[in-house]
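Researcher: Let's do a round of design. I'm pasting the structure tokens now; please hold your answer until I've finished.
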């Protein structure tokens, strides 16, 4: 990856301060040593100036800067020396660990530690005096300590970056969960609204069309009666949904969700709504009355599936029998709704396909299966059959 050679403003400031400090020490005649090969005081300005220039590379080219800085530190030992050169070199060593590659950050502290140990043992063996240990201490202060400090700072930065990354990931996951929860709740509300209102509105649409198209006072009166009843029932369902959305904040508590115990009333209402279309609706419930109760989500899903299947029959079924069958085994509740398949005379309500989607979503949430489509009948005709199997155990449900 391309790295800009333009120095950071902080690096420029360090270089200017270091050079100015070195010039001030030089002007005051303060030097770190005497009796060197290059005894002229001005010679010490050369390593000082180069080291100050290397400070401009401490962030962009840290390894190059510390390598050349080491040469300047060695060269400074042959002059009268400058404390500013030594201090700037320690900063270059620190920067090489903080801003260098991960491999350099691991290698430099080990190398400087070995150099410190070797310098200590070498001077002690050469001079054979305890004071020689001071050379090793100075070497460690100039090289190993800055490198060790750089390791600590780099580790803290890595830990901080990792913490920020985890925080960002947590925030992203939380946002994804929120979006999924909102989407799921909107889908649930759409299913409930469609299932509760579509049946009544379909009956209203069909009977209002019949009342407008047939010039018969009795037919119109019957149609208006059906329209009024479905309007009242639809309003009651809407009030129940609004009460659920307000979480009981309405003046009256919302009514309980419908269960399979209400199938008789649902089938009776569907029969009244579809009588003018030539449909006869019957219920066959083979469940045992003494069986264990079904979980509320299963009962609600089964009720809504029957309700939507009856609504579709009212819209599209040919004249004939509409049969609702409900059965239960130890693990599965089976719901079937069959109706005559073919063209039908008279008014029809348009369909959008949202009902079938809602039924599949309800079944999928419970881990069940559903089939909907035409099937042959024994006499050669066809029926439209909706068959859903709903597990009654919670282990297969999606949360």
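Researcher: That's everything. Go ahead.
Model: Designed sequence:
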């Amino acid at each position: 990856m391309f790295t800009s050679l333009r120095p950071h403003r902080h690096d420029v400031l360090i270089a200017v301060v270091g050079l100015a400090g070195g010039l001030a020490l030089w002007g005051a005649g303060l030097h770190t040593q005497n009796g060197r090969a290059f005894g002229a005081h001005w010679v010490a300005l050369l390593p000082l100036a180069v080291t100050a220039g290397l400070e401009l590379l401490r962030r962009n080219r840290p390894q190059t800067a510390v390598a050349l800085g080491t040469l300047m530190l060695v060269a400074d030992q042959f002059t009268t020396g400058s404390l500013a050169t030594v201090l700037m070199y320690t900063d270059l060593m620190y920067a090489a660990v903080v801003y260098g590659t991960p491999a350099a950050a691991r290698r430099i502290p080990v190398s400087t530690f070995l150099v410190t140990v070797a310098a200590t043992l070498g001077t002690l063996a050469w001079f054979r005096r305890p004071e020689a240990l001071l050379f090793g201490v100075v070497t460690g202060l100039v090289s190993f300590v800055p490198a060790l400090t750089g390791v600590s700072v780099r580790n803290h930065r890595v830990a901080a970056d990792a913490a920020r990354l985890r925080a960002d990931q947590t925030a992203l996951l939380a946002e994804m969960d929120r979006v999924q929860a909102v989407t799921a709740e909107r889908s649930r509300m759409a299913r409930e609204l469609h299932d509760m209102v579509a049946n009544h509105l379909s009956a209203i649409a069909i009977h209002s069309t019949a009342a407008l198209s047939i010039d018969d006072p009795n037919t119109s009166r019957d149609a208006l009666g059906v329209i009024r009843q479905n309007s009242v029932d639809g309003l009651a369902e809407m009030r129940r949904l609004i009460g659920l959305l307000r979480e009981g904040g309405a003046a009256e508590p919302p009514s309980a969700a419908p269960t399979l115990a209400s199938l008789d009333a649902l089938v009776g209402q569907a029969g009244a709504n579809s009588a003018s279309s030539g449909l006869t609706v019957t219920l066959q419930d083979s469940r045992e009355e003494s069986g264990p109760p079904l979980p509320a989500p299963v009962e609600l899903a089964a009720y809504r599936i029957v309700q939507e299947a009856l609504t579709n029959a009212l819209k599209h079924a040919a004249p004939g029998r509409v049969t609702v069958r409900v059965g239960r085994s130890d693990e599965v509740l089976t719901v079937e709704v069959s109706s005559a398949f073919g063209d039908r005379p008279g008014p029809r309500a348009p369909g959008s396909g949202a009902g079938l989607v809602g039924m599949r979503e309800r079944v999928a949430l419970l881990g069940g299966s559903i089939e909907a489509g035409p099937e042959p009948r024994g006499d050669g005709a066809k029926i439209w059959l909706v068959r859903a199997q709903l597990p009654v155990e919670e282990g297969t449900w999606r949360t």
